[in-house]
Amino acid sequence: MQSVDSSVFVLGGARSGKSRFAEQICRDSGLALNYLATGRAWDDEMGARIEAHKHDRASHGWTTHEEPLDLVGMLARIDDPGRVVLVDCLTLWVTNLMMEEGRDVAAESCALADLLPSLKARVVFVSNEVGLGIVPENRMARDFRDHVGRLHQMIAAQAADVYFVAAGLPLKMKG
Questions:
Q1: 54-73: per-residue pLDDT in tens?
Q2: Given CB 3.0 to 4.6 Å as the disulfide criterion, which of 33, 140, 145, 155 pairs with 62?
Q3: Cα distances (angstroms) measured from residue 15 to each of 27, 124, 127
Q4: Residue, of 1 and 156, whose pLDDT is higher
Q5: Choosing from 53, 60, 65, 152, which is the catalytic residue?
Q6: Over the stretch 6-32, which tens digit does the pLDDT of each residue have?
C-alpha cells in the first residue's frame, strides 16, 4: 500500500490526550478546520458531552459534520484541498456500524481505507487502541476488538504519520 502524504493516524487509550493532540495537528496545518464527529448520543450524558464539544469547537473556528455511519460518503462530500478533516473517532464509528442491522463492518472498513489515496483534504483520524488488554469474555466485545484492530492496521498502512498518545505524550510510530 502506498502512503498518503496528507493523512495522520492518532491512537491512544481513553483520556490519553489523543484528541487534543490531533486537534493541534489540524490547527497547525493552517487549513480550514473541519471536525467529522462519529459519536451518537446513546444516553443523556453522551448527548450533553456532544453538545458541549460542538459548542467548544464552533467557538474555535471548527465546522462540525456529524456522521455516525456513512463515513466514506461524508469524507467524499466534504473533500477539498483547502480543508483539514479531523475524524473523531474510528472506534465510535465501528460501534455504530455494529449496532446497525445488516452493516458489513469489514467491507465498510476496506472502503474507508480504499478512499484515502483519492482524498485531497488533509485527514487526521483518531481512534482508541483496544488491543492492549485481556481477551474480552463475550463474542460481541471480541468481534469489536477484531474489527477495530483490522481497521487500525489498514489506516496505519495508508497514513503518512502514525502517533500513539499516552498521558498526553505523543510517540511517533511512523513518518
A1: 778 877 899 999 999 999 99
A2: 33
A3: 20, 18, 11
A4: 156
A5: 53
A6: 799 999 999 999 999 999 999 999 999
Respond yes or no: is residue 53 known to be catalytic.
Answer: yes
34 strand-pairing partners: 63, 85
Q: What is the pTM of this model?
A: 0.92
Rounded to an integer, what distance in angstroms lies between the CA atom of residue 142 and that of residue 149? 10
d(CA 135, CA 145): 9
Rounded to the nearest 10°, the torsion over CA 123, 128, 131, 134 is 180
Average pLDDT over the chain, rounded to an integer: 93
Structural element, H or E, at residue 166: strand 159-166
Distance of alpha carbon 103 from alpha carbon 94, whole angstroms: 10
Show Cβ contacts of residue 134 under 8 Å, excluding neighbours closer than 6 positions. Answer: none
